[in-house]
Amino acid sequence: xxxxxxxxxxxxxxxxxxxxxxxxxxxxxxxxxxxxxxxxxxxxxxxxxxxxxxxxxxxxxxxxxxxxxxxxxxxxxxxxxxxxxxxxxxxxxxxxxxxxxxxxxxxxxxxxxxxxxxxxxxxxxxxxxxxxxxxxxxxxxxxxxxxxxxxxxxxxxxxxxxxxxxxxxxxxxxxxxxxxxxxxxxxxxxxxxxxxxxxxxxxxxxxxxxxxxxxxxxxxxxxxxxx
Length: 227
What we know:
The chain is an alpha/beta fold. Helix content is about 25%, strand content about 15%. The strands form 3 sheets. The chain has a 3-stranded mixed β-sheet with strand order 7-1-8, covered by helices on one side. A 3-stranded parallel β-sheet has the order 4-5-6, with helices on one face.
C-alpha cells in the first residue's frame, strides 16, 4: 500500500471524487426532506437520482464546532456564553460582535459519559440523510496530542462512521494553518499513515490513502511514502 501526500496539486487527485452539482428547489412551507425521503434533513426536495451519482460528496468537518462543546443546557453552554456572545472569550471577538452568528441545532444534555461519541454518531447520521458520503476532517494537531480536540477527533469520527454506516468515509485533512504546519513532510506522512488501515478512512479504489491538506499552498513539497 502507498500513501500519497500531496501538498500541491491535490485538486487533481480528488477531482473525480468530491464534486457534484444539483439543481435544487425550496420546499413549500420550508419543511425539509432527504435523499430517500426518510428524514427531514434538508429544506428542499432533492432531484430524482440525487443519491445515485458516481461522484462522492465530502463535507469539511471542523472539530471546534461540534453539536455540543460541554454537554450543558444550550441557554448556558459555551456557544451561548462565549462563541455567540459579543463579550465572549474575554472580549477576543468584541470588535466584530462575537465569533459566530449561528450554531449547530441545540440538544438537551445527554446522560451518557460518551456524549461526545454519541454526538459524532448523530452528525454522521445527519450527513448521510443529506446525501453526504463522508467528512474531510480538519486535523489541527499532531497525533501525540491526546486531547479530544487533538488526535481524538479523527479516530472518534472513524469509530462513529463504522458504527452508523461503514460506507461513510473519513478523508484526512491536515491543517497547514494549525500545529501540523511545522512538521516535515516525512513527519506528516508518518502521522497520517497511522490511519491507513482503519476501514473507515477514505482511500482510492487501488488502496492508496488520500490526504487532502487544508491550505496546502503554504507547503511546496511532495512526498511519497511506502507503508
